[in-house]
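Hey team,

Sharing the HEAT repeat protein run so nobody has to redo it. Sequence (554 residues) first:
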Amino acid sequence: MTQGVEPVDLLRLIGSAAHDYDSMDALEQVLLPADGLHPLAAQLVAPILAFAADPKTRLPDQLLMLVGELAAHPDGEPVRQALRAFTVTLRNLSDLDDHSVVEESTALLGWCGPDPRLSAVLLTRAREYADDYRRVTPLVAAAQLDPAAAAGWLPEFLDPSRSSTVRVAAVLAMREAGLAPTAQAGAALAAGWSADPDALRWTTRRGKLADLVEYAAGGDARRDAELLAAIARDGQAQARRDVAQTLADRAARQELPVESQALLCSFLDDPEERVRRCAYRAVVADDTLTRRQADWLADAVARGARMRRSALDALIRVGDPRWREHAEAALREGWTPPRLPGALAGLPAPDESLREAILGRVVDLATTIDVNRSPKTTAKEQRELVGLLRVLGDAPDPVVGVLARHLAQMTWPARLWVAEFLAEAGRGNPEVIEAIGAMANGEVIYLRLLWLAGGDDAPLRAAIAVAPRRDVLAAVAAAEVFGDADPDVAARLREIRDGDADLKDRFAAAGALWELTGEPAEAAATVREALDAPWLRTRQRARELADQLGLEQA
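Structure output:
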């Protein structure tokens, strides 16, 4: 919680943050950790504001902004209480010429109430500003400082004669002051946000459309839907996107009412691309929305739309059979959805045309994957390659031959995965034996595959003999080649299992020991450890082995 920073070091960090952005970032990480506020946050309000008020401070607005984040935090009540002792400091800061400092300090004044006199001062300031965007923060702060009085003067700012920006600001002020929503507030929000969705974007006191709609609707689902529909109907592009994003966020948490589903889906055909993209991402991520728009998604795939990959993936996810019509084209054209290999694996053996498409995609992936590119892209391509190799399964000789002929041109680690596939699917095939043998280069990992494919075991035996004793690949290969005919094999595996090697190596040795001896006790402890390994494949293999050993799993 304290990030290991002592109070005296915190004071030094505050002093550095007053002049340096990197230190400011570090201070924010310390005071706002993921698990809540720093326990000394309230006590640190005084030194932070002292630096903010110092004319020599280079970043006063950033310090004030940080205090605002602390005060707005769900656990920020002690910070809000502490701010009340600094009303004079904040008022002085709010009278400066620096717009950012004025904005941030004025926002903090809103936490310093109740204070009717200060509320009146800020209300006067809000009325006097010529720039509507500058009115937002003092208006909200004034309402916070004297909610009872604000109930009387806020309606004038909600009136249709006021600018859109001011009307939205007035709704935010009502909410921040804890006032009950009114029909006038709902109308002001709908009309104001439609015309000016940026009303709160350039001010310190910001508010999301979702929060304001929920407030103005007062918990009435029908009213909520009406407000969003009105903004979507009358709003400019950004306002419609805000509605789409609001509905998308809700869809990610819970199933939308039918009316809201219809409104969100209507944005798929919006004239503005940003709005369409927002709605589309929500539709392809939610089963209910995907099924509702399955025809639209299928049409998007058929017409070659830019989002066809994710559209086809969504159809696969909900089990819409139309995905099969486009599987072959996706493979041949190189836009394979993530779920396609798994879906193909669940079908009967592919026909010749589909198998050719799969083979072509496998060759393309295996010869182009570049581990030096984006890790995310590489991981996606590797998953696709492994999945498609599973689909090929017991491939006929022509398929095996094509892969064997391309093996030398394949990149790492695709070359290894394809070689493993060939060693099993092409056992005894001369082309496979020749291809793996040509690239083995004395490496145990390939010489083992050469042996499994039906090649000569002499090179493997020679490599095992000269490999380091704790080389896990050599030890596991020795167990496969020699079995229990060589008593030193088991001892070698135990040394690795019980040593200080990586968990992956120790787990591999334990699994080989169990295969060699048939004794569950040889592997049980290491398997239990591997169940919590940081690598997905290791955890999956550990679960499989735990089932075979009869071990209980959490």
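Residues 375-392 form the longest helix (18 residues).

Ping me if you want the raw files.
A.
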